[in-house]
Amino acid sequence: MYNINNILRENIKNLTPYSSARDEYQGEASVFLDANENAFGSPLNQQFNRYPDPLQYQLKKRITEIKGVPPRNIFVGNGSDEAIDILFRSFCNPGVDNVIIVPPTYGMYQVSANINDVEARKVLLTEDYQLNLEGIAEAIDEHTKLIFICSPNNPTGNSINRADVETLLANFNGLVIVDEAYINFSRQKTFIQELTEYANLVVLQTLSKAWGLAGLRVGMAFASEEIIEVMNKVKPPYNVNEASQQLALEALSNIDQINSWIKETLTQRDRLVLELKNFDFVLDIYPSDANFILVKTTDANKIYNYLVSKGIIIRNRSKVELCEGCLRITVGTPDENTTLLQTLQNFK
């Protein structure tokens, strides 16, 4: 049975987190002489001379209003990548423990495993890009701490079968991390709704995709209060800067704009699928719940290089396991998609 104390690293259990000036005093005052900041201000139109809120309270409050999850169940990080790294550092003993990844999938899970000296056991997805539950069960041992599942998956674009994920959550004694970076474009509902059912569930989301804030680096993790407490203990004290917090808060008030962009993205995704099918070098286009499509071609390298020569950059995924001959194409604006399609008409 899952118990956080059975998978948490001993040094993290005993860790005394850094106590910042903003942790020790969080109220209102007229004179702050506690944090060795520059009291004169910033050489900018906005003032950034004060350290940001280490726990991003105002931002979490707004996220709560949108997601329906209490602030105590939310971690905000410097992109979702920080949350991934913190999970490794909190739960995986270097050189001892292992995690399971299910390629083809987001490459940062493997990179974080390598950085933290943690074995990443690969269990390939099936031919239709779903979980191989039997293979995962065989790969798990007493040192398996985390299972990473990207849904909708990158680079394949499809959502992972919900019942299969729930099977893992119900039977695995470690953490199951469901990375929902592309959930805003999906027909599948978020796993955030299952947080009260599964104590070992961690859901990752981001403001980089549908919300259009990739340059601000703001990611979120949703989990039980005890998991969030661990992540807050391990993170750097001021991990999300003040500019990102302020701008993210402002962006989160523009839901109507985001919903409009999502709707247009889905329309353009359907358009790309429909028109790309007409090219004889396109062998298959895989179903997508994301803001990109995976296209199997006769010669991915040649097509990729041709588009680069025309100033159009897509992603060549032909060397990725189970994605041989494939190109990943992000859904662009109507004009960008027109340029892509017109350029491909001249490909020989």
From TrEMBL:
The modification N6-(pyridoxal phosphate)lysine is found at residue 209. Residues 44-343 form the Aminotransferase class I/classII large domain. Keywords: Amino-acid biosynthesis, Aminotransferase, Histidine biosynthesis, Pyridoxal phosphate, Transferase. It catalyses: L-histidinol phosphate + 2-oxoglutarate = 3-(imidazol-4-yl)-2-oxopropyl phosphate + L-glutamate. Pathway: Lipid metabolism; Amino-acid biosynthesis; L-histidine biosynthesis; L-histidine from 5-phospho-alpha-D-ribose 1-diphosphate: step 7/9. The keyword Thylakoid does not apply. Homodimer. This is Histidinol-phosphate aminotransferase.
